[in-house]
Amino acid sequence: MQVCGGPGDSGAPVTVDNLLVGMIHGAFSDNLPSCITKYIPLHTPAVVMSINADLADINAKNRPGAGFVPVPA
């Protein structure tokens, strides 16, 4: 899967078929153009972290959002 994101999108949810699967965590590289139009084949893809890994980290550090449990599909 490819995710197209831009500046300010970090922290945005990533869903597949209405299921929360990840969170955008910035751009992969500063050396490629940003994603302006999804039809342009060469651009910087966004880095997406697994929502399970993100929630585990948030809970382990007792950060805001600790204890959040997504509603099962």
TrEMBL record:
Single Gene Ontology MF annotation: peptidase activity
Top-rank taxon, per record: Bacteria
Keyword Hydrolase on entry: yes
SUPFAM superfamilies: Trypsin-like serine proteases (SSF50494)
Keyword Hydrolase among UniProt keywords: yes
Alphabetic keyword roster: Hydrolase, Protease
GO BP annotation list: proteolysis
InterPro entries given in the database record: Peptidase_S1_PA
The protein's name: Protease
Originating species: Mycobacterium tuberculosis
